[in-house]
Fold each of these.
Amino acid sequence: MRWGLPGPPQFGGAPVTNIRNVKSPHWRALLAPAHRCLVPFTAFSEYEDASPKGKKQIRWFAPPGRGVLHFAGIWREWTGDYGSKKEPNAGAHLLFSFLTTEANDLVRPVHAKAMPVVLCTEAEREEWLNAPADRIEEIQSRVLPTEALEIVADDEAAQYVGGYIK
């Protein structure tokens, strides 16, 4: 699977890595249970809103026990050119993205706009995968408890994301 669903045509169709507007007709069909998935993560990053111009500062967030949590994701099959313009990969692809919600008290000082919808418990994961479409907004609007994540240093985060930190 590859990260980034084709976006709405009126916005150029560029890959969309996170989805906030679940009321958009473009995403509606993908909100059915058959297109929902769990996106496992050990850490994620957000650019700091207060970064000096031209130099974005990244802050990493991880579960306190350094285990695995999940984002509420959606996926689809898609056929076409995917990848860079210089090196497009033509053919069939499995693509995913994840939902975002309002930032909680931990993330908001770093990135006020939004954060991923994080599913912490088995019950939350099952609900996401199986709930009727009319419950999506309720699931998306839940505020993640502050204690579910903590800010971690770049070198520590590198351990949890396979060493890939620029």
Amino acid sequence: MQLTEIQIDAVEKKTDLTAIKQEHAAISKLEEAFGSHTYFMNEDGLFVFMQAEEKDNTAHLLAFAMWDEEDKNKLLQLAEPISAGVSLNLEQAHVIDNRDQPTTIH
């Protein structure tokens, strides 16, 4: 899914993710391989936001490729995308980052 500039700004301000600009040379290859998305990256890998259902107001951040530990310029595609623990309210451009939140057991 493609995010708006407001949504992209919210994600970049609240997380360590950086959006890959549409003009970047890698975008055409990424879109050919994975479809049309706003792609984000950080020191761990490559991510996109996806809605569980088309009409869902929340999108969830999924990792689908991670940097090779031996060659940080090489991405390794994951067999299945994994949740990265970040959600985005699409209407309000509100980011919820649960990546480092402690789990409470009752």
Amino acid sequence: MDAMKHLILISLFIVSISGCSNYKPTIQQGNALDSTTVSQIKVGMSKSDVIQALGSPLLTDDFNQSRWDYLYYVTERGQRSEQKNLTLQFDGNVITKIN
């Protein structure tokens, strides 16, 4: 009888910890910066054209409104596996430099 109780306790313990896992989902953050979309961005485009193509920038500097930063990264299993950056410089409403 003691063996049966012991077996039941072990079974319950195994079932209870089987739901515990170290699963970390893949997380994508920022603006998707695929090469096709980025290649459409050209010097001379307006801010509204850029927003239409890429969306709003992830980062804007309050002290330098002429710089927009687009960032994209993927985190897999807690580690950053991919990162892309795009910086646009504007003069007024027009792109003057793409990094």
Amino acid sequence: MLVSSGVRGMTNEIGESEAAERRRITLSEVVFGNGKWLELVTSLLAISSSLFALYTGLFGEEVELIQRGVHFGFSVALIFLVTGKDSAWWKRVPSLLAALVLLYSAAYIVFEYNNIMAREGELTTHEITLGVILLPLLLEASRRSIGLTLPLVSLLFVAYAYLGPYLPFGLGHRGYDIERLASHLFLSTDGIYGTPLGVSATFIFMFVLFGAFLQVSGAGEFLINLAIATTGKSRGGPAKIAVVSSAFFGTMSGSAIANASATGTFTIPLMRRVGYRPHIAASFESLASLGGQLMPPIMGSAAFVMVEFTQIAYLDIAAAALFPGLLFFFSVFVIVDLEAARNNLRGLPKSELPSVRKTLNEGWLLFLPLVTLFTLLYLGYSTFMSAFWSIPTVILVAALKRSTRLSFPQFLEALRKGGLAVTKIAVACACSGIIVGVATLTGLAVELSNLMIEVSGGSLFNLLLLTMVVSIILGMGLPTVACYILLAVLVGPALEQMGLSLLASHLFIFYFGIVSGITPPVALVSYAAAGVANTDAIKTSWAACRLGIAIYILPYAF
């Protein structure tokens, strides 16, 4: 099936390797991985976490604290197991101990739930100690998985709550002692186990599992081949492949960095092959990957948190975000075409491209789960249940063809991938819960909103500009969902006070929080794409800003 050297050979090799990997996978590979006992524990824990989520989808959610506590314990424990598994045995000990403490915390909430509720906020010494231990463990898990920015911001908020009486410049408040903070942040639904983690444990987890089953069934391979077949021949074809494939991947992925790494590994070499300069190729890939966060249904997982924060129906949020997202991709598509025309960059030879008809014949059924998802949403089913019932649709549709049919090991692999993929989101949501909890406990959100309105001089346009700058700065180094939560709590209320509609306010800050991914100096998406292209990251991010200027203008349309 491989054609000589050339683009088709490259793309077919990618597709065949993925298909072969799906065919070869065995039960022992899923469960035991590289054969180490720690790999076994990690796989079983990830699968168990996914099964718990599916159980609650089938039989109903547990009470909030139990649902979120189990999700938190499993997810953060997995972070320590995954990041510590390749170290020397003596270096793994702290990670293993941390994982055990986190699993114990989940078990404690499950078995002591009635006693915790009966005491109505009164904590035992054991519970205070557990809360004090969980804070550094959560911050360390966040540092390991998503970097320093979010744990530092979370720690700053905890310090703000504790040191309130001693703060200058009108920032002071009454202050809260360790017991009060432990009660509020660790054993209530207002802190770590608050709304953000609740969304991660339900809506987000179910959509991540949905995406994992789609990927294991071969949807990723199909969408990439479809992008190549439909756009590869046109002027600047490889860059257009990046745009279309990232738009497709945005329906399954919650991370722009993951998009850039996944699609960039083959689109960037293709772009360079037809004449794009390395930093331009990387900038187009970073723009396309960033745009994937704007597209329903996942929208970087932030759409589901937005539902809880605004109490606006998910379908309304997705509908409002769809046109601007498509408009952004259209603008990038046009810029790609103009850049190709200016540099006389041609598309790929037709002989090296897969057939559109053949590609659709092989994979069009994989669109049906997405159709099912949006049909259920349109019929009024909850977001959680719509995602849950879309998963069996993936399995049934995949079973119609031998090439996509899921074996039992592949079923377990989807559960394992889903359980691991949600860990970073869960950690980000848990840390964000600290920020939300402190902001509501101290009244910081109200004070900051009043300050922003005062600085803007009461002008909505000035406030929008100020919000844009603040959103980009606060969004630097943060994953999409954590960025949105931080901005929704600290910045969103100011826009609402000035008369902007609730949905417009939240979409505005959501867009500009995402833009930080290509905005220097901390442009993580551009850095990821530049790493794939082996080019200068700052040069790439500036090129992405110039070529993607439309994304800085689009939010004002709300």
